[in-house]
Amino acid sequence: MSKRLTLSQAACQVLTASDPCEKVRLTYEFANAWQSGKMTDIGDNVPPDRPARPAKPELCSPTLMPKRSSGPGKRRTALIHAIAHIELNAIDLAWDIVARYVGEEWPRAFFDDWLQVAVDEAKHFEMLVTRLHELDAAYGDMAAHDGLWEAAQKTRFDILERLSLVPMVLEARGLDTTPATVERLTRNGDEATAAILTTIADDEINHVAAGVRWFEYVCQKRQLEATSTFKEVLGKNFKGHLKPPFNYAARDLAKMNRNYYDE
After folding, report:
1. Helices 7-15 + 20-35 axis angle, to 10
2. Is 1 a member of any domain?
3. Prior bond to 107 cis, omega within 30?
4. Which pairing describes strands 59-60 and 144-145: parallel, antiparallel, or unpaired?
5. What's the CA gap between 4 and 38, in Å, rounded?
6. Cross-strand partners of 144
7. Is residue 2 situated within a structural domain?
């Protein structure tokens, strides 16, 4: 890797890598280069509107997703496949946020945070793909929905919209729903998958925390009140209302003020 590669160039290389294994490999390589000081310049390369994707899985609108099989084994595989797809998208989302909003003139800590998120998501994807292989399946075997990247496109013009919708709503919802899924998997004897989801949930607390931290940083910089701004920008991009139950313990660890979501 050239020492003159900028961080935004690195982000674009990850985003334009269609092979998931290459996307993961580049994530580790570039994050290590940044963290070790071998890469220092941010650059101003503009990321693509959509990341490159492999031929499979077929991407569908969330409303057009085929129904999952009623068999318990296939339901579990479908669950793992769906989460793996989310984690692959999350790798790209982390790199996209690194390059898309460089005009905000961030401190280094901003890039530190989102590169760590990218590394975590790459680790999660690898763990889930390995679990699929153990169950005689592979990523791409099933259709997947495109909802997460639709959210990214909807919020590509304003960092406040991106942070409010992705980490502070969609990822925070994962904090709410994962404990019940882990409990169900454990009850059904699938401790291996339960352990993976527990690791993911623990890491996601830090990801939500990063979203909250930088959302509030931008609000302060723009002299905006954070809670009302969150609700205003969310109203533009999120249909319906934030509904309980909420995982208050996890959200509190992420330093997400309850005024954001608990009315």
Report:
1. 170
2. no
3. no
4. parallel
5. 9
6. 59
7. no
Per-residue pLDDT tens digits for 9-67: 999 999 999 999 999 999 999 999 999 999 999 999 999 999 999 989 888 766 555 55
Q: Which residues contact 149 (CB under 8 A, 6 or more apart)?
A: 50, 51, 89, 92
Rounded Cα distance, 213 and 253, in Å? 12
Q: How far apart are CA 81 and CA 87, in angstroms?
A: 10
Tell me if 171 sits within 8 A of 208, measured CB to CB: yes
- Hey, what are 261's tokens? 């979501």
| Separation of CA 236 from chain center | 20
Please check the confidence at residue 2 and state whether its pLDDT lies above 50. no
Residues 195-222, mean pLDDT to the nearest whole number: 98
Amino acid in the structure at residue 119: V
Could you report how far apart the first and last alpha carbons of the chain are, in Å?
A: 50
99 in a structural domain: yes
Q: What is the dihedral of CA 213, 253, 238, 102, to 10 degrees?
A: 20
**Torsion 131-52-177-61 (CA) sign:** negative
Its pTM stands at 0.93
For residue 229, give its domain range.
7-260
Q: Residues 258, 91, 116, 1: what is their CA dihedral angle, to the nearest 10 degrees?
A: -160
| Residue for token pair 């294994």 | 21
- 86 domain residue, yes or no: yes
